[in-house]
Sequence to fold (506 residues):
Amino acid sequence: MHRLRVATSILGLVAVWQLIVLLKWVPDTYFPSPLATLQALWAGLLSGELSKALAQTASRALVGCIAATVVGIGLALLTARYRRLRQAFDPVAEFLRPLPPAALVPMAIFFLGLGWKLHGFILMFACLWPVYLNASSALKAVASVQLRTADSFGYGGWDRVLRVQLPAALPEIFIGIRIAASIALIATVVTEMLAGRDGLGFVLNEAAMTLRIPDMFAALLLTMLSGLVLNAVVLAVRRRAVGWHVGMTASNRG
Amino acid sequence: MNRFWDKTWPALALLAAVLVLWEAGARMLASPNVPPFSVVMQALATNSGVIAPQILQTLRRALIALALAIITMVPLGILIGRIRWLGDLLEPIIDLLRPLPPPAIAPLVMLFAGTGDVAKITVIFYTASFPILINAIDGIRGTHPLLHTVSRSLRLNRAEALWNIDLPATLPVIMTGIRLAVAAALLVSVTAEMLLSTDGIGVYLLRSQETFRIADGLAGICVIAVVGWMVNAAFLEIDRHLLHWHHATTSE
Fold:
């Protein structure tokens, strides 16, 4: 039933799109029909332009997201273990978080060039904060009953952090990872648009600049699809890692 | 005061350590690519006349787009949350568009709206809309069923119930959405300026890059960080004032 509804509204969207093109509300050089977009998508995938760009963008976003997750959770565990470290690091994180990753691109090019180092730095900067801040506050918020139980079992120091706080905080940590995954795609595409030589962001920009509009729509469609896939991957990992929690609470809505 | 000091000294110590390392490291490298912290601060002082109007442009656009998003998306979210067929129709489309990176629509917007104010505000508006819309939908659906019974027994009509009961009950969730939207709007307004360049702090950064004025560019980044932090703090304060009754009942 749910799938039927989703299919209906997506069909409706495509129909409206086609109608706009048919009635020529906007010049069709700027707004290709759904069919023309699909043709451009198919041609781009076959010629390798779009498929190569997709592979580059997706692998960058995925690697960046995984790296930021590992570093972010590691940092959060450290600051959960050492209170002074958290007091030192949290204000710095709160201050750096609102800084737009795109703003760093022009200056970072001087230090890091245009290659993978630039992408790595921007992605790490963009994705680290949501993972770290969610993990840190989740580790801090573990119920005191659980902590006192751990104490009475003689868990102290790292044992307490890793065997009690980490499992209890895992569901909330995944919220941060999901946010980081969507930001990873945004940061990758933006970096490619601003400083790229390849990837979906670059293709998107280039197609727009050279007025190959169906190609631009195809790249846009592909970017959207990779966002959907990335989100689905994180949800699947979450189900495997913290399925027990999803079953316990009703809040398993996508 | 002592407790405050006890909590803040580690952060100040870390900050001081980073700045000292930066200054000493840059002076030892002595490379034109890595200006020391003191040079960046000098650049900030000499360029403040250039940076200030640019960041105000950026803020102006972000706030206009944010206001538009709040005015349109809160009512739309309430409608989608309350009217079943509208939700069935529009929610899959929202879920579909949500993962699309907002800056990616900049080239598309450029075709229709050029590179002026309208284009940039459109991109920021698009970005800020999603958190507000989604939180408004979830908020109105999550209102306690008991409130419905109350409004019925008070014989309120639909509009009165919406204004006096549903809206205040949903406001905490909507405010969370607005706070997320503020952060997103600031991030994207700088990005949009860099992609659709005419003016604003994003353009200032690009110009600094093109002319190899690294210290000036780093000064601009410092300004963005401070302004972003202040705007977020301001909205947190608004939230606290507007919802003091909510925080008073939940923080206990």
In short: The longest helix of chain B spans residues 37-82.
